[in-house]
Amino acid sequence: MDIILIKYGELALKGDNRAFFENKLVKNIKEALKGYDGIKVEKTHGRIYVECDGNVNEVIDKLKKVFGIVGITVAKKVDLDLDAIYNAAIELMRSYSGKSFKVETRRPNKSFPYESMEISRMVGGKILQNVEDVHVDVHNPDIVLNIEIREKAYLYSGITDGIGGMPLGTNGRAVVLLSGGIDSPVAAWMMMKRGVEIEAVYFHSPPYTQERAKDKVIDLCKKLSEYGQDIYLHVVNFTDFQLAIYDKCPPKMTTIIMRRMMMRVAENIANKYGAKALITGESLGQVASQTIESLYCTNEVTHMPVFRPLIGMDKSEIVEISKKIGTYDISIRPYEDCCTIFVPKHPIIKPDLEEVIDGEKNIDYEKFIDSLVIDQIKIKQDS
Ligand code: ATP
Ligand code: MG
Question: THUMP domain: from which residue to which, for each copy (predicted)?
Answer without folding.
Answer: 57-161
